Structures are given as C-alpha cells and as structure tokens.
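Weekend entry, working from home. Most of the wet-lab plans are on hold until the incubator is repaired, so I used the time to fold the two sequences that have been sitting in the queue since the last round of cloning. Logging both here for the record. First:
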Amino acid sequence: MPLPTSIPSPSSGVLQLGPFPLRAYAVCIIIGVLVAVRIGQRRAEARGFSRGTVADMAVWAVPAGIVGARIYHVITSPDAYFGAGGHPLEALAVWRGGLGIWGGVLGGALAAYVFCRRTQRDFLRLADAVAPAIAVAQAIGRVGNWFNQELFGGPSTLPWAVRIDPGRDGTVPGALTYHPTFLYELLWDLAVAALCIAIDRRIRLRRGQVLALYVGLYTLGRAPIEALRVDTAHTFLGLRLNDYVSAVVLVGAIAAFLLLGRRRGAEPPAGDVPPSPGTDDDNDDDDRHDDGHDGDGYDDGPARREEPEPREVTA
C-alpha cells in the first residue's frame, strides 16, 4: 500500500482541449522558457544590455537547445528508437519526453554565441546574465517529468516518495512508490540559481565566471541524483554514460572558472557593444575622448593632460 504521505502521480500527462491534445511536458517547457526570459532580461538590463536582448537571443537559443537536447538523448539511449522493437520515428516525438540537458546546453550556447557575434554583443557577459535563469527553466521543466511519470529513482518508502504506475520502465514488481529524482533535481536547480545570484552579488566575478559557476554547481548536484535513477541507460564499468559526461563537464567548469578569474586587465564595458572605431556617431567626433577611452571598449586610465610650455621670465 502507498504511504498516505506519498506524492501521487497524475493519471495522464495530456489534457484534451476538444480535438487538440495539450501535453503537460510541452507546457512546462514553454513556461520555463518564458520565466527564464523574464529573469534573464532583468539581469541583462542591470548589466547594461538593451531591452529585448534576451528575448531576441531566445529565438535562436531555445530551438537549438531543444534540438541539441533531443539529439543527445537519442544518441545516449538509442535502443528505444533503433534497437530491437524500436521505433525510429519516435525519435522525433519530443513532446513525450526525453531531452538530455548537456545537448540542450551545448546547442543553446552555440546558437547564443552566433547571435552575439552577429549582433556584436558580449557573449560571456550575456551568458552570465541568463545562467541562473536557465537553472530556473530546468526546474520548471522537471515538473513535466512528473506528469510523464519518468526519471524516478529506485523503490522508496520515504514520506515524499512518488507513486508510479506499475509496468513503466524502471518499476519493480511489488513496489508502488519510488525516489522522486525529478523533484530532487528541481530543488537543486533552484538552489543553483539562488547560489549563482547570491555569489554574483557578493563577489566581484570576472566575465564568464557566473556561467562556469552554474555549470559546475549543477553538475556537482547531478551526480548523486543520477546514481538514484533506474531508467534504462547505457553503462560502462558500472557507471551511466551521463556520469562520465558530467565528470568531464565538471572538470571543465572548474578549470574555466579558475582561468577566467585569473585574467588581468580592464573588463569591456557593460551592455551592448559600442560603435566600432571609424563609424559615424553623433556624439563622437574622434575615437579618443577625454575620459581615457580610445574606442576599443577598455579603460586606458585617466586622460593625460597637456602640460603648458614653460615661459621665459625676464627680469
């Protein structure tokens, strides 16, 4: 018998609106994107970016992130689609779940980088603004896993165990409640977002360090959660493929955080990139100004004053 305090699972992840099915997983992703854009835009504007920058970037990054996440999932779990009894066309059914976070991060980051290059914006500074927002979006997306009754852990009798219908992938005969690993990750995602924002406010970080901090913290918490999961996955030497990927990403994030923190020299100005030298600008007649900037975006120190020539004093 399920414990009275266990978490019930929705009977269905689909709500019928007349002839149209409304899938909870897709709704959670959409809500997550909208919330992330809102949070990211506020943080971006505080860094001097123009209004609408994050929304414009999301038009590039979100589709690329979803495609990348799906490709990563299919590559790391191919048997369900290309193995014995698999259905290759199911690889396109994103709305049924199955998105790999690292493929999503990579696809979205590449698209965001292209966007910043084309619009002459600082990629690292903008990535620092949206990194905590991405963690919040991930947390909201995990609610979709609850509706789909997926990404749960092994059998559990804890008060917060989740009820899973028998016969689903990973269920154990006789067990009705399991570790809600999707809930554990949801809570960790929110903690990562809060930690990134708090550290960013209290410590003077260099460009790109908030992004590296987000990746490192998320990976650090993902490892123990991954160990609890029982869904089908490829393993090597007793560890899931995601464990190896996470280990490599964690080392890379730590190295990036340390290297970015050791950079010397003035940081580029906050916000959108100023006009390039040689372009017409109503406010600037020359690339060098009296405030010590020479048009390259870096501070060259106080403007040098011209000393008057000494005058002869005659008796």
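Second, folded right after the first finished:
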Amino acid sequence: MARSIFPALLGATFDELPEPLQELHRGDESAEWHGEASLRGARNFAGRMVAALFNLPTHDHRTGARVSIEVTPTGETWTRSFGGKEFRSYLSLGTGRESGLMCERFGVLTVGMAITWKDGRLWFVPRRWRVGPVPLPGALLPGGDTFECERDGLFAFDVRVEVPIIGLVAAYRGTLQKQD
C-alpha cells in the first residue's frame, strides 16, 4: 500500500494531532464514522446549481451524518452522507506539480490542498485545481475556511465551499465518532 496521506504530508506533526483526528486520518484501515451535522446551502441560484452538480447540501438543516472511508492501494475513497444524500470523493497524495498537496477528486475535477496544523485546527487550503490533466485558472479556484479539530472528545469538521463570483456553494459542520 502507498504511504498514508495525512501522516506522509504532516510528518512528525501528525503525532501532535488530537487522537480523534489521528484515528480518522491514520489511513491504515477502512472505517465508518457516524454523527450529526448542520448544513447550509447556497444563497443564490448559481451556487445551488454548483452544489447540485456535485451532490453537495443545497438547503439549511440539521441531520445525521455518516462518513465511510475505504482505504485503497493509492489513496482513500470518502463517501459522505447527510440525511441520506451522498457525495463521494477520492483522496490521494499529490505528485508532480501537486507534490506536497493532498489531492481530492470529485469526478473529473481535482483540487490540490495544502494541509496544515495551526492553533488546534487541521486546515485544508486549496492551492490548485484541474479538470482531468488540464489546470484551471487560480483566480477561479474554490476556497472557504475548512478545518477539522477535536470537540468534546469527538472528531469535528467545519467545511465551507465558496467559488469566486458565485459565493457560498455549501457549508457543513458537525461531529463524528468511529463505529465498531
């Protein structure tokens, strides 16, 4: 199997992460995590269309959350389910121009993100994006404050997806606990 993504990117810093983050990102076994999430949908038509295209949350509500992580020889397949609505992505270590980044692929769209540990939060910072092998303009790169942390002994996530010109596409935050 290839090196686990997060330990490889963070090096010795991985050992500083709170236990729930280490457990989820260790990358040595497939796992399922359950919890709760608050969802926030886009505030305009264009944002709702982009969210629908990627099966992201499209309206505001609180619901159950499930994240399944399947470890593969080259990365991890993440399936996120909020209130029964699923979206899937594939995480891998970046290579070439994306070396040192975690690459998350949604269908043909791949976003290369820097992963940093700062102020008790694991930050996901978009640096590059592409469709297939074709790089896309940095000026249009999706962003938003996205981080993970420990909250009350649980794995906590806070994801905000924004696109220049469009604004908020989707946001979701909550906590998860590993299922045995």
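Plan for Monday: verify the second prediction. The radius of gyration is 16 Å.
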